[in-house]
Every structure is written in structure tokens, then in C-alpha cells.
Amino acid sequence: MSMDSSKPVMTQSAVSFWQYQQKEAPQSEPLKEDVEVDVAIIGGGFTGLSAAREIRKDEPSHRVTVLEANMVGYGASGRNGGFNMSLFGLEPEVTLVRWGKQKTIDAQHYMIKAVDYVRNLVDEYDLPSDYEHPGMVRVAYSDRQRHRLEDSLELFEKLGLRQHYQFKNAREIQESIHSPRFQAGLFEQNSGILNPYKHVRALKKLAQSVGANVYENTPVTHITHHKDKITLFTPQGSIRCDKLIIAVNAWASQIRGLPRIRSRQAPVWTAQVVTAPLSEQQWQDIGWSERESIEDNRQLLHYFRRTVCGRFTMGGGAIAFPQNNALGQMETQNIWDNLETHIQWLFPQLKGIAIDYRWGGPVSINMDMTPEIGFIGDERIIYATGCMGHGVSLTQLNGRTIADLVLEKKTELTDFWIINRKAIPWPPGLLGQAIAHTIAGGLKLWDKFEERSLKRHL
Q1: Is pLDDT above 60 for 144?
Q2: 287 forms bridges with which residues in the sheet?
Q3: Quick one: pLDDT at residue 327?
């Protein structure tokens, strides 16, 4: 399949590459009446659909309804890079400083469970997710980045997690992936890749198969909550429910009627590109035969992987901030240009490689760089935010955790310390924007300092 690269995707209204490949998918009808249910879920992504399926599996008598503002797969769950990985928050060093050793250990064990949860789900139901489990390697371009990889390995040793990681020097990493830029790598075997759009559409079918109702193209315009019921208003109907799950992640700023949700996180944009299919000779030139996913050890990191259709996709490297919460109006041409330049900087063998598609989308960033599951008021309203761009595995296990909370079960998952933690709220208005830009500027300077020995800054 070839695509017209002269027409780059410029706004959130355009679909991801993964969705573009699949063309049209059958959509559920929007809500067109007033209904009453036990549990309503706003957001038809990984979190919401996983929670819906788990609730119905455990309690088939519960009436569960999912409301998706667009179509399932349109949001972050169908736009991401498809990394089923164990990274929690920004990185373990940040979690350690903010929360201490034991909570960092608990977070890493939660994420190991999350990776296994996704992999086992694909295997159990034979989901058409194009799933592979080749592991992931974090690579360094400079001596300082290599030293931080070594420090990370020492930290994993102290946390009792050393067995999951293998350090590779420049010779070892370049033997398998033929990039002259890689100075070291930290390999983790327990990591996979999938097609996120195919996967989330499969999760929709699973939720429906156990009796959950899924309404697409049904945005929630307003929420009211009283002692007896919570009411969700949509353009053509309403839902009265006993309990509500808000599973919109970066889109939390769009929720009306629950002010606290708007302060839990800030949306930032990450952009991605995908190459034209590589020839057999080009793949031989760059190696990468083990198909492991890759992240670099920058603060504003790049993430890249092979696809089952013979391309590779890359994202990250920089972030952009929506103005006035206008998530559908982002100009990211300079980020796409930088990604294309970075591909050829990494692999000079691919000079002139065509870029077939460009897209992007918002991710959820918490003030203290830590994921969160919380309650609003009493425990009738539950929300989840703060994936930090590492949400494929996290959000799906969060769905299981939220199901336990909704059903008032006491489990190992519901004891996880991110639940109803004392999160730092994101300041509103210009102050919040100023803080976000300051953080991004600091990360950019950090990368520039660590990469000052390179011939070009990334």
C-alpha cells in the first residue's frame, strides 16, 4: 500500500496511520434515548472498554454502558505507538525521588502485571492485534546518556528487578541494529508491540460479547450528580447511572460539570511518522531482525518500531501544547520534519526514504509525572489520568483495577498506591500553561546538554 506523502495530516481531526490502514470499521449507533444503568463509562478506549468487560464478566447482572465521543479507536488508544511496556510514569528515577523505594518497586510490579495482562488477553481470545513480544531496548546517543543507562541498571539491581534487564555496549547494540549513533542499550525482554487500532476495536467486541452496550459518536455534553443518581447528557439522549467511570485520559479537560477532573492533568501533543515499506535490502542494511521496539534515553524521547507491513514508525522527540484546550487544532509540521530528519540521522543507509503518513495526538501529563486513579466526592465517580505516553499496558490493567473498585472488591490491585493518592493539581489558565512550557523547556535544555558532543542536536 502506498500513500500520498504530499498531504500530511495536520490536525486531530485526521485519523492515525493504524486506522487509515483499516479503512472503514463498523460503528455502533449513537445513543438516541434516555436510559438508566448501573455503571456508565465515558471513553471507549483501553481503560473504558477493559473496565466494561471486566465488570460484566464478574457481575453479569450489572447494566454497563460505554459512551465514546467519536468512534472507538479515534482517540489515544488508536493513535499511539503500540508499545506494551513496563515503564511507569516518566521513568523509575523520577518515581523514586517523588515516592520512595517501596512505592517504586510496587509500581514496577504493577507494570509487569500490566504487560502480562495484555499479552495474556491477546493469547486467550486470539485477538487480531498483530501482537509480537520481541522486547524493548532503550538506547543512548552520548556518553552522558550511556551513564544514565548504567545508573538505571544499578537502580533496578537495588529494586530487585535486575533479572529483567540486559546492558549492551556499543558493539553489541550495533551488531543487531546497524545505527552508528547507538552507544549503548538497556534491553528488557518482557515488552511487546501491537497494532493499537486493531487492538482497541477487538476490545470493543469483547466488551459487547459479555453484554456491555457501546455507543459511538456520543459525546457527553454535561454531567450532573446528586445523592441518588448521576446523569450524563448527550446530544440525543441521557443516561442515569449509579456509578460513573471517566476514562478519557488526555481529554479530561473537555468534561463539563466536574471541575476537579479538569485540574488532574494537562494534555500535550506527540507526533508520529511512518516510512514507506522498506525493501529487503534496506532491512538487511539496518539489521533490526529481532524486531525489538526502541526508545532513546532522552528526556524528550523518540520511540520507534517495525510494523508488520514492512515499515517503521517513529514518534516523539518534542511535544506541543494545545491552546485553550483546543485538542483538535495543533500545528506540528516542525515536529514531523524533525522526526524525518532524525530517521536519516539514525540510519544513513536510508537516505531519501519516503515518509508515507504523519499523525499525532494528545497524551495525559500529571503535575508530578505519576499516573492516577481517583474518586470525586464519594466512590461513585472514578477517573484515571496521567499515562505519560506509556499507557498501552497501564490503561488496560487500570480497567481491571477500576472494575474491582466499582464492584467494591478488596484486591491486590485496589491496594495499589496510585488509587486516590494526594495528587498535585495542575494550575488553571496561564499559570498552568507557563508551568508546562517551563517543564518542556527544561527537558529540552537537559537533552541539549547531554548531546552537546554530537554533531547535531536532536
Answers
A1: yes
A2: 177
A3: 59
Instruction: Give φ, ψ of 284 to 5 degrees.
Output: -65, -35
- Please report, for the chain, the start and end positions of each structural domain, with discontinuous segments joined by +: 17-450
Cα 355 from Cα 57, distance rounded (Å): 43
Distance CA 300, CA 312 (A): 20
Tell me, what's the pLDDT at 281? 96
Nearest to 366, CA basis, from 439, 442, 446: 439
Summarize pLDDT for 285-322 with one digit per residue, the tens.
999 999 999 999 999 999 999 999 999 999 999 888 77
Best-predicted range by mean pLDDT (6-20, 214-228, 257-271): 214-228
Reduced to 3 states, what is the DSSP secondary structure of residue 300? coil
Q: Are strands 192-193 and 83-84 parallel, antiparallel or unpaired?
A: antiparallel
Q: Where are the alpha helices (DSSP H) in 33-100?
A: 46-58, 92-99
Other C-beta atoms closer than 10 Å to the C-beta of 26 total 9
In the three-class reduction of DSSP (H, G, I as helix; E, B as strand; rest coil), residue 187 is classed as strand
* Nearest residue to 332 (alpha-carbon basis) of 321, 346, 323: 321
Across the chain, mean pLDDT equals 91
* pLDDT digit string, tens, across residues 339-368: 999 999 999 999 999 999 999 988 888 888
Helices 101-125 and 391-406, packing angle to 10 deg: 90
Q: Number of helices (H) and strands (E), helices first, in the chain?
A: 12, 18
Q: Which fold has domain 17-450?
A: FAD/NAD(P)-binding domain (3.50.50)
- Reported as half-sphere exposure (CB side, CA atoms, 13 A), residue 318 has a value of 18
- d(C-alpha 234, C-alpha 26), whole Å: 21
